[in-house]
Amino acid sequence: MDFGRLITAMVTPFDEQLQVNWDQVEPLINYLIEEQQSDSLVICGTTGEAPTLTDEEKLKLIELSVRYARGRCKIIAGTGSNDTAHTIHFSQKVEKLGVDALLIVAPYYNRPSQEGLYQHFKAVAESVNVSIMLYNVPGRTGVNLDAETTIRLSHISNIVATKDCANTDQLTRILNDAAPGFLVYSGDDSNALPALSVGCHGIISVASHVIGKEMQSMVKYYLEGNIQQAAELHRKLHPVFIGIFRVPSPAPIKHALALKGIQTGGVRLPLVRVSEQEGQFIQSLFV
Predict the structure, then answer these.
(1) What is the pLDDT of residues 40-85, one digit of tens each?
(2) Is the confidence at residue 157, as pLDDT, over 80?
(3) pTM confidence score
(4) Residues 6+ apart with CB under 8 A from 259
(5) Is 168 annotated as a binding residue?
(6) Is the Cα dihedral 91, 153, 120, 51 positive or negative?
(7) Which Pfam families does the entry link to (predicted)?
(8) Long-range contacts for 273-278 (Cβ within 8 Å, ≥24 apart)?
(9) Which residue in the list 118, 163, 185, 254 is annotated as catalytic?
(10) 130 CA to centre of own chain
(11) Is residue 48 a contact partner of residue 264, using CB atoms and an 8 Å limit?
(12) CA–CA separation, 34 and 30 (whole Å)
């Protein structure tokens, strides 16, 4: 399965009471597909504030996303947790909603061994028939899904891709030895072009909420062999790649969306909205 080159990890829109704003889900999806040119969307990932969504909210949000996307892009649902049994139970529910793939994060807090990580992902993969994308984000989970473990997992038939926030050394090792057809995506916006240069298929992005078109152009330049133009665009976009993570995500990108007239509300505790000073900094990125 090809999820395209640019995947947006979609924010969850909230209202003033920080309840999911169901009326804003369809306009947000349309905007990300039509205006920002997302090839796929991750629903209920880190950027979607999955840790503070209830299972009921997640199921409804995923169901609506599949319906509203109407086949115009792939829908990848985040269903992972640090409990293998719960991950399996929830993944089986989500599979029935018609998603194209599941995004399974490395178990956080538990600090499992590499063998524990392998057995966790293997158990989840064997419990569903839908495609699975691994998600390695050591800065949030406290554990790195090593290249060697990812390579082992790539030989399980329905584990088809990984979103890896590690450096290009790890990405390169995975690309060298993973199963044929296994797709590697960078999960770090600022690493998008370097990741493409070592053979990654694309980027799973936060910045693409507001500069998706430009990121698609950067990818297109690179794939067409216009390396200088791709590099120039990467350098131009780099302040945004870095700036939207100046404070904990997704507060900055929600503020950036508001500046564009796309209202997705605030963030749930323990996250907080950007301060006035932080908001001014984010605005300066787009002047």
Answers:
(1) 999 999 999 999 999 999 999 999 999 999 999 999 999 999 999 9
(2) yes
(3) 0.97
(4) 282, 283, 286
(5) no
(6) negative
(7) DHDPS
(8) 274/247, 278/246, 278/247, 278/252
(9) 163
(10) 18
(11) no
(12) 6
